[in-house]
């Protein structure tokens, strides 16, 4: 699931080689080109974990913040959220559809790739998909009351939830794509953008399906508080409480935490992290924030390596991040992923797909594969 998620790092400070904006952007473009060759259909207050990016696992607003745009929570509430909400809702009135068109999904994926290549907005798009899906409650059977991937995050009442601070920027980024492809539901577009961002950052191919039906109005939004908190008193227990409610398990929790390899936490949004570090002061996009990894636009297993080694005070470790090496059950998977990137990619792809389907109603029921 970044949003959607800091402990002072201990141990000897051994700073990795400095990563410049040019190096990072060049590395991202190289990774993107390579992934396109390898993946024919391939396309980062003490808040909530965006199992996420910038708890997203970015499900916190600290999980994956946008590398493109920065806005204060106050200005977001007064202007940004309301204006983008009006725009999305007026489009919804004219283009509401119960299922997505496969050809439009394929074309939209190419437009999302172009957006990623020009705006470097991978983390916040991951977080967008995760925060829409991460409200799912398996104990509620009725749709859309059960929450999950139903596009309800486009409505102002949910967009203003504390865990979603800054996600107005994500809606602004994809607004033109939604207007261009009226035959795609919001629920599908959010998940398409999230999976494509992972793949384009060098991550695994996600086994996605589409055809999600949209929630129809603000009355369908879940209550606030379903997303994880970044700094609860008992981080491991809190993660289990939230993710077990979604029907996910310990392996899913740790794998999804690995998406923190993308993105930055901005203290003005989440209450966590430094205003800037040597890795973020030059962007790309709006400078600032604190990242979990040196190359915070590259999807790999460095998140697990950095937490295990605890060697660089310029890298972020939240209480919920530290928990994956402190809890005995979580640690089994965290150690495995730190040592074996292929194993991490395999389990991450499964967990991300699982998350993206939570609470969704599909039309047709079996979904659409593109």
Automatic annotation (TrEMBL):
Residues 125-370 form the Plant heme peroxidase family profile domain. One of its GO terms (molecular function) is heme binding. Residues 265-281 have a biased composition (Basic and acidic residues). It comes from the Eukaryota. Its EC number is 1.11.1.11. Residues 12-27 have a biased composition (Low complexity). It holds the Pfam family peroxidase. GO terms for biological process: cellular response to oxidative stress; hydrogen peroxide catabolic process; response to reactive oxygen species. Residues 1-27, 215-236, 259-292 are annotated as: Disordered. Keywords: Calcium, Chloroplast, Heme, Hydrogen peroxide, Iron, Metal-binding, Oxidoreductase, Peroxidase, Plastid, Potassium, Transit peptide. Its cofactor is heme b. It is found in: Plastid, Chloroplast. It catalyses: L-ascorbate + H2O2 = L-dehydroascorbate + 2 H2O. One of its GO terms (cellular component) is chloroplast. Residues 1-11 have a biased composition (Polar residues). PANTHER family: L-ASCORBATE PEROXIDASE S, CHLOROPLASTIC_MITOCHONDRIAL (PTHR31356:SF1), THYLAKOID LUMENAL 29 KDA PROTEIN, CHLOROPLASTIC-RELATED (PTHR31356). Plays a key role in hydrogen peroxide removal. Belongs to the peroxidase family. Ascorbate peroxidase subfamily. This is L-ascorbate peroxidase. The lineage of its organism: Eukaryota, Viridiplantae, Streptophyta, Embryophyta, Tracheophyta.
